[in-house]
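assembly run, all chains below
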Amino acid sequence: MDQETEEVFRQEAESLIESLQAGLLDLKRDPENMEVVSQVFRDLHTIKGTGAMFGFQRLADFVHDFEAAFEGVRSGTTSITDDLIDVSLKAYDLIVSLLEGDAPDPQVDADLKRALKAATGAEVAMPNSEEPAPTVSGAPLGAPWLLKISLPDDLIEIGGNPVALINELIELGNNDVSVKARVGETSPVFSEMNPSKIYLAWEIELPAETGEQDIRDVFMFHEGRMTLDLMRVPESVDAARTDAVAPAAPFVAAPAATPADNAQKPQSAGPDKKRGATAGRTKGQMRVPSERLDDIMDRVGELVIAESRLATLSSKIDSLELREMVETIKRLALGLRHTTMAIRLSPLSSITGKFHRLAHDLSGKTGKKFDLIIEGEDTELDKSVIDALTDPLVHILRNAVDHGLESNADRVAAGKPERGTVTLSARHSGADVLISVTDDGKGLNPDFIKERAVARGLVEPGATLSRNEIFALLLEPGFSTAETVTDLSGRGVGTDVVKNTVEGLRGSIYIDSELGRGATFTLRLPLTLAIIEGLMIQVGTERYTVPLSAVEGIVELPEKLEAVTEMCSVVELDDNLVSILRLRKAFGVPGDAPRHSKIVLVRANDEQVGLVADRIIGSFQTVIKQLSPLHTRLNVFSGATILGDGTVALIVDVAQIVRSQNIENSQKRRVA
Amino acid sequence: MTKTVLIIDDSPSVLRMIQMTLQQAGYEVAQASDGAQGLAIALSQRFDMIITDQNMPNMTGIDFIKSYRKDPSSDGVPILFLSTESEGDLKAEAREAGALGWIAKPFDQAKLTAVAKKVLG
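ok done. output:
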């Protein structure tokens, strides 16, 4: 087995066990769902079958019993109990560790097998039907074999080849074989014979040393559908061995291959994947080191820059041919960019299985009853972002259950449903993806948090802080609201690590909460990491790029504006009040804006905001180059890009610029 | 003429293993990942042999065999059925539906090659 096949198996096994775990957790909620039972059964069956083929014998043996337990459920003799799910999840853990190549104490397998049996309350055994070997009728050993056969009459229709079968026997008998064919007793007259049916019966004599099982194996597919009499006969029935294959002659036209054919084929045809690719679509996947993808992305980025420089150069040369070529390259680069980006995207569902399991375990450990609801699992994100997000999300979920949700009794006392709800939802928002974790627990107490922050020296005692600023203190290193360190959270990765991870992905994290009603942690993450479609604008003499996906429209700047602050105004658009930000003022460009300035409408933090620019230049593919660490304080810019003429344009971080100018608040004041 | 084989299995690793084995033995290989897809491909061109799994989404192996055998173009095309040793009754059902034979899982490359040679000659 080559390495790649093993890798394919490993990947497949991972997705199978993922599905298995999801199925088990679904059954915990909905034990009657027979569709899920079948799914679980099918997953187990496949894991068993392929596991054995790829050398995971212990795994296959264990899963055999696991499957047997679910056979009872599938056939309706036993039902799903919490007990069974618990044991099954432990069995799942064993499968995972066996797949990972660990060698746990064999006692674990035995104990779990027993627990599975106990949980299903039935001694279920899978039917094991190795066909018993038929015994041969008594005859002296050492005498030659006489085999009388008549083949199934539909053999040719179903693709069988009688000549090949007889050739096999001839080979078995080292050519020392006599074959006699005769027309069977029940055959119709010649004129009524169907050419695709078999009317012949054979008598074949084989040497005494031929193995009985070998002879029977030739007909292994047809046992039960043919007559096969095998006996030892004291004397040779027919000595004429020279014309051994003669009776097979009428079938020469059938698709029989001679041994000579066999010998030639393997050399003439090497692996040929063409047909596989065109005739059949596989859902095969390939695992590639992410550095290679980064490398491709980098090069695609450079290509996009080179392409736009080429476009600039070609615009100075009056050549239709050149322009056509530039257009072609542009199209190709765009396609390549899209494909490369798509390769990197992975749905959130690829990690949510872990969260269901986590919820199960958390519920068990804390005794808090709750449902984990996951919304927007299809939301796709860069694979590296998804991978990096797993730990922070696990941490936030743990916190939500451990610190957010009240105990069952407290919930009832507070007039809430006994079962809590924790929702993990993901959705796109402009150029970003928002992932939020909401619980309906006791919520965060701003006064308590502030008090604690003051005590820890994180803020000055008299400082005035907004609610959001107070909640943000939770993310500061060294801040923990947990009264005691529990087994589940409050140790290990701190919330500040969550913050660092998210910020490392150019994302941000917000916390909102209503006391007594619950809390929401929202992660805002960029959809892509390297190239964006940008709207280029001019402010003063400089050019800037606004991520096009955040842009919702462009309108003319009205003559009269109601000023809120020097930089911010409010304008009425389609009956909505929209805050607008004068970029000239924000960027410190001296002088007045030209008369026909434009408002670029962008969506940031779920609010529409207008950015006033002098001029709109157009949309361009923008390769994001990180700003040097020296400039990281310039948080209103998320990066820079190199333009076709070699100059640099800064990329506006819409969310940050809006936040830095407090437009949200001014707008809220207006609306209120 | 190189002989062509269609493999129908929802397990990518089994598909790949069979594909590689048969290609090494000199056959051309097409693949389908469930019975319904397999049926569409099987009816679109003639194969020298078809290997199908039983447990698959959309259409099981036996349902595939039944549907395929309804089409006259399936005459003479051998079908091998992949089964585990615990599925003895399924083997009979598959044979009834029109499979020529079976390969019991787990199998290795040598066993698969031997069975393929037996059927394809």
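Chain B has five helices and five strands.

The helical segments of chain B are 12-24, 35-44, 61-69, 88-97, 109-120.

not gonna interpret more than that til we talk
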